[in-house]
Specification:
Strand content: over 45%
Shape: globular
Number of helices: 1
CATH superfamily: Jelly Rolls
Strand order of the largest sheet: 2-3-10-5-8-11
Order of helices and strands: HEEEEEEEEEEEEEEEEEEE
CATH architecture: Sandwich
Length: about 220
């Protein structure tokens, strides 16, 4: 399959409410959806996970998270970093057919929303910064540590400090003959299908990468 840089990258434009950036099945990625939620003070967001496991990553700000469905409940005030460069994130995992609500009480909040089809019978979990999930109980793997080499299937969300920064990245395919060197910029989203690889060559600023993979 012939691909170009425009096939592999999307640009996230910050907006209020929930912005769906990558849909399930888009650009060769199967079973992963990715979006970002922005709430101002006093706003809220409610959703039913349907047939998906949902993982939330607090990118910045603070909010109240209410999870409730029959006996599968969780509740917490989460988020303490100003932005993605302010330490590790609060995260939450919400199983299928469960409702959850995010409420921004006293400050704006930005949340990465990651989804994958799953019928695993797991409990809702809210993790403090530095804690981790039992991978056997989840459909998604979320990693905030920038890695030199990434293999598909994966979605990667990038930010830089300062925002004008960028990184050089080499994209190539196992099957060939695709190989390309690109510049990754602030709020870029890399969509890396199975059989493709991405190597970071160098970064011109402080780099943040949220990597989302299907387990």
């Amino acid at each position: 399959m012939s691909r170009s840089e425009t096939d592999l990258y999307k640009k996230y434009k910050s907006d209020t409410g929930y912005t769906r950036i990558i849909e399930n099945g888009e650009r060769g990625i199967t079973d992963i959806e990715f979006g970002i939620l922005n709430l101002e003070v006093g706003e809220s967001f409610f959703e039913d996970t349907a047939d998906n496991e949902v993982m939330l990553v607090l990118l910045g700000g603070r909010c109240e998270l209410l999870v409730g469905h029959n006996g599968n409940k969780a509740h917490g005030l989460i988020g303490e970093r100003a932005d993605v460069f302010g330490g590790e994130a609060y995260r939450a995992s919400i199983p299928y057919r469960t409702t959850y609500e995010i409420l921004a009480h006293d400050e704006p909040v930005e949340v990465a929303v990651c989804k994958a089809p799953s019928f695993l019978e797991t409990a809702a979990v809210i993790l403090d910064p530095g804690d981790d999930f039992n991978r056997d109980e989840h459909a998604l793997l979320i990693n905030e540590t920038p890695t030199h080499s990434i293999s598909g299937e994966a979605i990667c969300f990038y930010r830089f400090a300062p925002p004008e920064g960028h990184a050089s990245q080499r994209i190539y395919s196992e099957a060939g003959p695709f190989e390309q060197s690109v510049k990754v910029r602030h709020n870029n989203v890399l969509v890396l299908p199975k059989g493709y690889h991405a190597d970071l060559v160098r970064s011109q600023a402080q780099l943040y990468c949220l990597q989302i993979c299907r387990l």
